[in-house]
Queue: 4 jobs
Job 1
Amino acid sequence: MFVESFKITGSAVIQICLLGVLGYFLAKKNILGEEGLNAISRLTLDIALPLLIFAQLIKEFSFSVYPNWWVFPLLSLAITLLGLVVGMLFSWLIKGSQHKAQFVSLVSFQNSGYLPLALIAALLPPELATPVFIYLFLFLFGFNLVMFSLGVFILSYSKEKKFEMASLFSPPVIACLLGLAGVFFGLPKIMPDWLIKPMRVMGDCTLPLAMLVVGGSLASIHLKHIDIKAMIYLALAKLVVLPLIGLWVVTSYPLPHLVALLIILQLAAPPATTLSLLVRHYKKEDLLVSQGIFFGHILSLISIPVFLSIYFALVVIK
């Protein structure tokens, strides 16, 4: 059973990786330079993903169908806090205050949007993928709020830096708020299909664009003075301990299978690529973030199929 599950999840990860490899190759060959990568990243984060979220919520979401929708933003907070606790426990093995701060951020914040989106699309048939997409968008609503508040606080690590309230309201967060408000006020009943369809078409570009960005971002990372010990501790904390805790939770409590799948996806995901942007924005020396993102994504090519295969095998057995 495990072997069959591994074949399915491994195949899904390979499909995703091919797009990432293309982005990596384009960046390495300077076909896609830093400006081009930034442009695609902004197009994905500011336009494509928000349109995907808004159109999906307007078309598929209903407060009566998803009465427990509020659980998913809280779930994102719980997973982040779990990562924070595990990261702080392992950080005792890391020397230097800023090294510790960056290590904790790498463990606490995962690639919560791009990779889970692609994995859900590759693993599940459309009728099952649709509700998981809804779960994911609601999860991202909470995650982005935490990422741009707690994440900024951890990484900025300076009394002189003031909290930026505007950073909480990123385009995906705004899209989620507008989508929920639109459903509440009955917008799906009056919004014509000719207006929703272009949004969905543009939103469907999110997955390939996102993986190009991830691959290109990995290619642009400059690895200097690799901290091997810190990377080993990161791999253990982020890619082994957290997914193991996730497996224990989803097998110990009677959670719906699709919700449990979302939990495993989030806990098995590598560090968030957004962390490198935050380090750059707050003008902090990149001590561990880039190498953590790079090696985290490389090692997750093995860890994600392994833990997803274990999960699917356990689900079938139960």
Job 2
Amino acid sequence: MTQVTKYIPNILTLFNLSSGLLALIFVFKQQWHFVAFFVALGIFFDFFDGLAARSFKVSSSLGLQLDSLADMVTSGVVPGFVLVFLLADSLHIHFLKDFQFDRLHLWALSGLIVTLASAYRLAKFNIDERQTSSFIGLPTPANALFMVALPLIIYDSQFSFLKNSLLNPFVLTVITLISAYLLNAELPLFSLKFKDFSWQNNWPKYVLILASIVLIVFFKFLSIPLIIILYILLSLVTPKGK
């Protein structure tokens, strides 16, 4: 049994990577619902590969490196290219059809700054012993969810009033730069893992969970960036070590 279980975490990690690759394909097809679905599925596998490794006591250096490589695709490459395509649309250029090294296409490529910042954040996470029970800087999965929600909000008729505001190259560039900063900022953020279930030790997590349910019910896709922002704000008022 041990011989079988030791492979389960790495198999889940490869499912994460496979989900990220499928999401990337749909980015290039600009089918944003599928992009969001496969990124969310990859993050689901990312959560459970670590849980499986701890449960079966089969954590390894190989698993750690493989996990980072999978996250790099699902939560690094995919959100970067989402921003590239949104920037291209906002600049009224056909990114794939007639790419050239001019000012507008290079501006669209600036969305890949998020990919570079994600790579740096993942590498730093692997050697940072301070992040065993909490995070320093925005985790790449949370950042990825924020990014893949943007096209769902922009192109959904329910949020048409936000389209002109969000589908603006300057706004998207600011979002790109803020994202890159938050990924690597010395900003303590609480983990969603529960050591116990008391209100005193876990109130920010309970507030986030309850607020997330309410936001999802009333705001649907728009709830995703709102939840990420709430997570950051709650972390700022949470005592260190919670």
Job 3
Amino acid sequence: MLRTILREQEDGIARKALLCFLTLTMMLLLILPVFAADKQKDEETIRNANLLLQEMLNSKDISPSTLAKANCVLILPGVKKFGFGIGGSGGRGPLLCRSGQDFEGKWSAPAMYSVGGMSAGLQVGGSSTDFVLLLMTPKVVNQVLNGKTKMGTDATAAAGPGATAASASDADILTYGKAKGVFAGVSLGGSSVEPDNDANYRLYGKTLTATDIVRGTDIKPTEEGQALVTVLDDKLPLHRQ
């Protein structure tokens, strides 16, 4: 009996060790491409964000009237999710804000942001999901621009209404997601977003804060960044209250 109990305990420890090893491996696979990023990959991320935004607008996954009320938009193409007992997510993409003190002007140059987080619970599998986050209040814009923001803790987040919704949530951030795979148990809830200062340096050739980029008036976007700005200005020329 004692041997059986000891064997079961050893098996349990071995399973936990394996789960930890697999989780750490998946985290490394997720993180290493970010460390290996260069300006070309940054531009590719912005280009993919542009395609994602146009696709979600054209398919009416995002209501243009709701997006027109947003102060800023954060587009995260291909956020990687993984889980082997413990889950996590990671990705990056551009943040753009309307210019002007009351966010009533044209759209800014994009500042690159990263997203990542861990969550506990029974989770098995992995996937890639596209996200578009609408920042609806000046308070959450300041929060996101000034550093790391944890979804659901530092800012309230809710699923964004579709094209036929009667009214939007009063959450700080409205989230839209498009899954490319199957995953059980993880969402952006609990994840954190923060400026990707390395990517912003690569894109603009100098040290700039996210605030410098999206609230400044003299930052010229890159070619792919300008294409994204043009889409937003053309499709959403006016800020609606």
Job 4
Amino acid sequence: MILKSKAAVITGSTSGIGLAIAKALAREGADILLNGFGKPDEIEAIRSGIEAECGVRALYSGADMTKPSEIAAMMEEAEGAFGRIDVVVNNAGIQFVSPVEEFPPEKWDAIIAINLSSAFHTVHAAVPGMKARGFGRIVNVASAHSLVASPFKSAYVAAKHGIAGFTKSVALELATHGITANCISPGYVWTPLVESQIPDTMKARGLTKEQVIEDVLLKAQPTKEFVTVDQVAAIAVFLCSPAATQMTGANLSVDGGWTAQ
């Protein structure tokens, strides 16, 4: 197990990609802190299930990723409980689809806060301890939209481009400290986030649900298949492995060929 005696914080990890990554890291021996929203009983079932299956400690924080003070408290809680934070996975994200002139400013602010600024706050808190121990793995879940754009997603595209740039800058700063920073850029993954944006896309483009899936979502991906959460999780595990020690500042596309076009 490559992460035995290590500890990881994974934001946005009560469902979808984040949960798959959390489970994958736990299977590799990492104690984990889950974060996200959901029904308390369902989150507790997830948390306790990971502990039972993987034999690790699993904590949960409901910290709001729009609030720096709550992020700082979450990171402090993890450091206090585990004695260390070795891996930070910034996965929390929301989406909103609208023409730019109709885009609600409060939606812009929320998307930038959750999809971009929260990554700064987690890294800001984790790096001192990582430096002291001479080891750290920062994995930012970006998107194909960190490399290319789509209409009606101005805030999301801006945030994901920002994550890619932030990752590169942090990687350069930490290159001599045993800490790597990389991002994973999935194409369309079938998650609650993707499913929830279909109605807005239907409205914005005047399409049916089937047309959105076939002509908007999978149109971009030459394989004509959704990426799976487990495929993304496997890449996250690889980035934490010894094989990836010399990988830093990279942006790994897992998008069915989308950005190869």
